[in-house]
Design brief:
40% helix; Arc Repressor Mutant, subunit A; binds zinc ion; alpha+beta; 3 domains; 3-stranded antiparallel β-sheet
């Protein structure tokens, strides 16, 4: 018998706000001492009252609009009760009755074709703390730095049917949320986490099989392996009766390549959801809603088409539209210098090379894009040599305040009014000092000319139009 896999995903994404969801503690504690980013509110001390961080609602709404959701204009917070040592209040403040966004859609494309994955809802909630197990001491410590860091949970309908579709969906989610600049979405950093709900049924059946939930996958590759394993396990149980499938939560062990039962699947009733009386309902008025809607960026496809219309190749348009930071760099620099084709060449060569060397992702690009455009203009106009412009660009990566023309002038990199006589003097000196290269060149060794060219450029400190230098050098060598 043929089977089909039915998959729904719950994706937790850490929002990139400065502070936590209900207090003013910093939400960024990477590398900080344990319990150094905490206050009585996020430690769940009795009598402390939470205050909703407006930026979290901004980001939640924006994420919802990116995923084609309807926004609940009155959105409320609820208590989800459970006990665990990393949850100081013994409940999580989340959204159950009126989440910020509902009824969305994410479009994906795989080898099986195009598909729309329905989004059931996006809710805002607080993260829990972290338990740190010290094996040598036989003790467990608790770190509350992460408690109340804002999350959104994106719940899909069970519309996915393969690991390939899950991969396409997660990559699309990541691209859209990064475009909206609401989240980093880096699975390796834990800022995007994904639980997989999976069941198997005979192909064509409309009855869902027994569903298991898998946790603890740290990469898209691990998720794909977990789906393959779990699908196989379900089919084996159905066909061969190797085990009785039960609705449960399972832990994926990527090193062993297996999933293990963690706990029987809890139901909503177990959590005793009820409205959190300490958090006022958030009312999103027209002005607020319109401001957020106006800040939603164009989708990657729209940008790609626009770039192709500007004369970029499909390949380059695709590469630039992959990241909103590259898009902004391209658009702002093009506007500053009026030469989009030149800008894309610089981005795909120099900018990407420097990012790579610094082990930075596209999202970490922090250039002053207008100044970058100006640097390109100065180079195209022959005021700065290409070699020196690379050095200036490198410096601009480290210091956003650099103004290219002033920097070039201060560092003796500005090519003044071209003075042929001055260049000629230097070239003559170089040619006279190296008769061997001259005779080698005359004897047919092309490379010898490059050696002379390099020496001249060095004497000129790179402040010379290479074409102009080549003409003068050739003339000099032939007359020597
Ligand atoms: Zn706090």
């Amino acid at each position: 018998m043929k089977y089909e896999t039915v998959i729904g995903l719950e994706v937790h994404v850490e929002l990139a706000t400065e502070s936590k969801i209900f207090c003013s503690c910093s939400a960024h504690s990477f590398g900080a001492d344990p319990n150094s980013h905490v206050c009585p509110a996020c430690c769940g001390m009795p009598g402390m009252l939470p205050v909703v961080n407006r930026r979290v609602v901004d980001f939640g709404m924006k994420a919802g609009l990116m995923l084609n959701c309807d926004i609940n204009r009155v959105t409320t917070f609820d208590k989800k009760s459970y006990y665990y040592p990393d949850l100081p209040g013994a409940y999580q403040t989340t959204q159950w009755f009126a989440p910020v966004a509902v009824n969305g859609r994410v479009d994906i494309e795989t080898s099986a074709g195009k598909k729309s994955v329905r989004i059931k809802q996006i809710h805002m909630e607080e993260d829990a703390g972290k338990l740190v197990h010290d094996i040598s001491e036989g003790t467990t410590h608790v770190d509350f730095n992460r408690t109340s860091v804002p999350l959104i949970e994106i719940v899909s309908q069970p519309d996915l049917s393969s690991a390939e579709e899950v991969e396409a969906y997660l990559i699309r989610l990541r691209t859209l949320l990064r475009y909206a600049k609401v989240a980093e979405c880096e699975m390796a950093h834990g800022t995007m986490r994904c639980d997989v709900n999976l069941s198997v049924r005979p192909e064509g059946s409309d009855v869902l099989g027994v569903r298991t939930e898998m946790k603890n996958m740290n990469s898209i590759e691990a998720i794909k392996r977990a789906i393959a394993y779990e699908t196989e396990r379900h089919i084996d149980a159905i066909e061969n009766g190797t085990e009785v499938l039960v609705q449960e939560t399972r832990r994926w062990d990527d090193a062993k390549g297996k999933s293990y039962a963690m706990r029987s699947k809890e139901t909503a009733g177990d959590y005793r959801y009820f409205p959190d009386p300490n958090v006022m309902p958030v009312v999103i008025d027209d002005e607020w809603f319109n401001t957020i809607q106006a800040s939603v960026p164009e989708f990657p496809e729209v940008k790609r088409e626009k770039y192709i219309a500007l004369g970029l190749t499909e390949y380059d348009a695709e590469r630039i539209s992959e990241s909103i930071m590259l898009c902004e760099c391209f658009e702002e620099a093009s506007e500053a210098c009026g030469n989009p084709k030149e800008v894309v060449n610089w981005i795909t060569s120099d900018v990407m090379r420097i990012l790579n060397a610094k082990q930075m992702t596209y999202e970490m690009l922090n250039l002053d894009n207008k100044a970058f455009g100006k640097l390109i203009s100065l180079t195209v106009d022959g005021k700065i040599s290409r070699a020196n412009s690379k050095k200036i660009l490198s410096a601009m990566f480290d210091d956003r305040t650099i103004e290219p023309e002033a920097y070039a002038e201060a560092n003796d990199m500005l090519i003044g009014e071209q003075n042929d006589d001055m260049i000629l003097d230097i070239v003559k000196k170089v040619v006279e000092s190296d008769p061997k290269s001259v005779s080698d060149f005359k004897g047919g060794k092309e490379k010898a000319l490059m050696a002379l060219f390099g020496k001249c450029m060095k004497e000129l400190k790179g402040n010379c139009d290479p074409q102009q230098l080549k003409v003068i050098l050739l003339e000099c060598v032939n007359n020597a």
